[in-house]
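#struct-help
A.M.: can someone run this one for me? Single chain, 331 residues.
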Amino acid sequence: MRFRRFSAVLVFSLLSGVALIQYFSYKDSHPSTEDAYVQAHIVNIASRVSGPVIKLRVSENDYVNKGDVLFEIDPSVFDAIVQGALANYEIAAQSTGASDAEVGVAKSTLEERKVTLSRAKRALERATSLAQSKLISEAEFDDATATYAEAKASVASASADLRRAESELGAKGEDNARLREASAERTTAELDLAFTKVIAPVSGWVTNLSLREGAMVIARRSQFSIVEDSEWWVEANFKETDLKSMRPGQQATIEVDMYPDLTFEGHVESLGAGSGAVFSLLPPENATGNWVKVTQRFPVRISIKSRHDDPYDIRPLRVGASATVTVDVRE
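D.P.: on it. Structure tokens below:
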């Protein structure tokens, strides 16, 4: 009887020892943490122009597709600015045409005065020859000389007028500086008008919505957010003692508290370069003399594989949901 009792105790002890060894071996090769939360990209929505909201097309928790109109701002002011920009562009085009005509007039005047100069030069040459032969008076020679000087000065003046007209005209066509400036103002006005319709930049769920029709929105000020549905991951905070064998690419299992009967698959995407305490608002000062050694936790990003068993999104993931992550570090 004693032998049987001793044998039973021995067998139980051996089995318990083996079970404990296997348990600790499994825990060592499959580190786990409950300090984990579901994450996704969150896009803050803000308008690029200011104005009153005339149409709100979404509600809290609505699902929107990329490119959907979220809300509209009163476009009347921006439409008026566009009309003014279009008018300024036409004025610039007309001004450029007038300057081009002035260049043409200046060129014609220069050519006319060059002809006059040529005639005055020939007249002076004849007067010089006749004056040397004493066939004309000195006064007539002086008149020919003065006429030539006046014609020469007129050519110089016309040349200056042409250069000034060409400078005011600038480049021709669409390369003209005034036209390009007016075109840029027109494009800016048209863009501002287009920005009165705020478009969803991503697909996802509308959240934190408090905007209402009639409210005045300020440019670049966030109005609400969209939780993007294209990528989901878990940020798991593992103890530093669990990271000795953890590497990117290792397989992981994820249990979300929201759906206890579901197990998600994933893999280690990256390991944090610093502990959570380092990046906290008030990081610990370990050199103050009251230091206490505390095991630190490091964030590990676990990507979640796409699911194909929930095509109608009956049980979608939620940002911030608690999870339990176990990583197989044997690979």
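A.M.: thanks! The mean pLDDT is 81.
D.P.: also worth noting: The first strand starts at residue 32 and ends at 46.
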